[in-house]
Amino acid sequence: MLTGRDAFEHILCGASMVQVGTTLHKEGVGAFDRITNELKAIMAEKGYESLEDFRGKLRYID
After folding, report:
1. Alpha-carbon distance 9 to 27, whole Å?
2. The pLDDT of residue 60
3. Where are the alpha helices (DSSP H) in the chain?
4. 58 in helix, strand or coil?
């Protein structure tokens, strides 16, 4: 997991947790704030107030 967009996509697919170990190792604890802020920005842009608003809501287009 490198970005808030990655977190958003995993949660959209139904994830309840995401792994940031490699990013944490590379960037340090600041990675948590960056990823969280990126995720919050995406949520605000789409009108989501909580993770439950979009968790597992991926829709396939036929």
Report:
1. 21
2. 85
3. 4-12, 21-27, 30-46
4. coil
Give the pair of three-digit tokens for residue 53: 């608003």
- How do residues 20-35 score in pLDDT, each as one tens digit? 999 999 999 999 999 9
Q: Which two tokens stand for residue 17?
A: 């947790």
Give the model's pLDDT for residue 53. Answer: 97
Which pLDDT does position 49 carry in this prediction? 98
- Say if residues 50 and 8 touch (Cβ distance below 8 Å): no
C-alpha torsion 52→45→35→2, nearest 10: 100
Q: CA 54, CA 45: separation in Å to the nearest integer? A: 13
